[in-house]
Design goal:
With 495 residues, the chain is of the alpha+beta class. It is built from 17 helices and 17 strands. It has a six-stranded mixed sheet, covered by helices on one side. Strand 16 and strand 17 form a beta hairpin. Helix 13 packs antiparallel against helix 14. The longest helix is centred in the C-terminal third of the chain and has 22 residues. It starts with a helix and ends in a 7-residue tail after the last strand.
Length: 495
């Protein structure tokens, strides 16, 4: 039975895959039975009556009539589920507690309907396809709910990730780890860490689950002939997510919106909105088929697109007509942990959010492949200078051989791209040079890389503009390249 301290911890952590709050007894007590039925058909959980939407423990009045009505409604769940209502005093306030085990005789039905827990919400199965899928899965156990005998929690927990989780989930620092594990249903009945908990909090889960990694590959061009970079990221799922995002940041074009004439805060502007990548990568990690031992989660970067894929197609409980409207996870425990870290928003909203963000950025909507391997394709913006540079590089590569062509193509393509960028449109060049001159006025020790980052150009692009301003005797460099300083020679406008 839950103690007052347990209830405080659950309330502070907020609603989730295994916790539902009610500020008072609903006018229709069947609402409670629907939640209980959903928990029983998933990994179990707890319903707290007397906790508001802001996670405050406010207490509730539950007289004998209400208790009898609740208990009678719970008795209508079929097959019979041993779950009862108890009242716990928490700092002088009565809290109704219904603890729900993960039912051993799934599926559980209430009032002729099946309810399941998906992330932080309970959903009623309404279509024959959804029900058929649930019955097929009822005799199986979710991968992330199975116990992992190879994992030693005393040695293999990533303490840094656990601390980060506590902070993001608003769990107090002093809360004992075991209390967290039990309240979040991370342990099996025989106190084994569940696979989902191992993947989320383990230092090296890939030592147990070999394919539980994210592989990031960048290619030259638009096909898979020439690999430019290939990295495999292991560790906890949160670590894999963070490293994949950082890898993309290092590869993609990112500009900066600088406020206060170069002295204010900088806002990163990704060529494809960063939030789109976060949604896509977390979804691929959360919903992938970890039973599939022949494939890994992939992030593939091409000149014209980014593809993010994971083993396992669209879950059969989701029909194509419902794609983007409903959510059903192969790994609800993992999805629920990401939700508690505020990294997953409203269930079923990710697809629409990605579409809207791409549209706002002036890019085509994401496209999806849903059979076997689930893949989302994100189209990159391609500048005219990059197109010409790439075309020249490809022609040289075809004529001079792959090795020589790649080297010359890269060099000539970059050089042509920088010149085209610098020369394309007098207004853009004037703006870039004015910005460079303004930054030099504010700091005559500023470096080429610093100028490039603040102006949003490559190093070569900045060097091109500086060479022009030197020729026009607007600026000069005094002393050595490393220890020298910039000197403004003429106040006339840049060209």
């Amino acid at each position: 039975m839950l103690t007052a301290e347990d209830i405080k911890l659950i309330a502070a952590s907020g609603e989730g895959y295994n916790a539902e709050f009610k500020v008072s007894v609903p006018s229709k007590v069947r609402d409670l039975s629907e939640e209980v039925c959903a928990f029983a058909n998933a990994a179990g959980g707890v319903v707290l009556i007397g906790v508001d939407d802001s996670n405050n423990i406010v207490g509730a009045t539950i007289d004998n009539v209400k208790r009898s009505a609740i208990q009678g409604s719970l008795g209508d769940i079929n097959p019979a589920l041993h779950s009862t209502l108890s009242i716990v005093d928490v700092d002088g306030k009565n809290i109704g507690v219904i603890e729900v085990p993960s039912g051993p005789n799934k599926p559980y039905v209430f009032a002729g309907s099946i309810y399941v827990r998906i992330g932080p919400n309970s959903q009623k199965l309404t279509t024959p396809e959804q029900m058929r899928d649930f019955f097929q899965q009822a005799g199986k156990i979710y991968f992330d709910e199975a116990g992992c005998r190879e994992f030693d929690s005393t040695l293999d927990i990533d303490r840094e990730i656990l601390q980060s989780f506590k902070s993001s989930a608003h769990i107090t620092e002093s809360t004992p780890d075991m209390q967290i594990y039990k309240n979040l249903k991370l342990l099996t009945d025989d106190n084994l860490f569940k696979n989902g908990a191992v993947l989320f909090f383990g230092k090296q889960p890939e030592a147990i689950f070999e394919k539980a990694v994210v592989r990031c590959v960048s290619f030259k061009g638009t096909d898979k002939r020439h690999i430019m970079d290939d990295k495999v990221f292991g560790g906890s799922l949160h670590t894999q997510f963070g490293k994949a995002i950082q890898w993309l940041k290092e590869k993609l074009n990112i500009s900066y919106d600088i406020e206060g004439q170069g002295s204010g805060p900088r806002k990163e502007i990704w060529e494809i909105p960063e939030t789109v990548f976060k949604e896509a990568i977390i979804n691929s990690i959360s919903h992938r088929d970890y039973y599939d031992k022949g494939a890994v989660t992939m992030v593939e970067l091409y000149d014209d697109r980014v593809e993010i894929s994971n083993p396992g197609g669209l879950v059969s409980a989701i029909i194509i007509a419902d794609f983007g409207k409903r959510s059903h996870s192969r790994n609800p425990l993992i999805f629920g942990l990401f939700a508690r870290m505020q990294l997953v928003e409203q269930v079923g909203s990710g697809i629409n959010r990605m579409r809207d963000l791409m549209k706002d950025a002036g890019l085509p909507e994401p496209t999806y492949t849903t059979d076997g391997i689930f893949t989302v394709k994100l189209t990159r913006p391609v500048s005219e200078s990059n197109k010409l540079g790439d075309k020249l590089g490809d022609k040289l590569g075809d004529k001079l051989g792959d090795k020589l062509g790649d080297k010359l193509g890269d060099k000539l393509g970059d050089k042509l791209g920088d010149k085209l960028t610098a020369k394309s449109g007098g207004k853009n060049s004037d703006k870039a040079r004015s910005k460079i001159l303004e930054l030099i006025k504010g700091n005559n020790d500023i470096t080429i890389p610093e100028l490039a980052e603040m102006v949003g150009l490559s190093n070569k692009g900045v060097e091109y503009h500086i060479a022009k301003m030197k020729t026009e005797k607007i600026i000069d460099r005094v002393d050595s390249r490393k220890t020298g300083q910039w000197v403004i020679l003429s106040p006339k406008k840049t060209k």
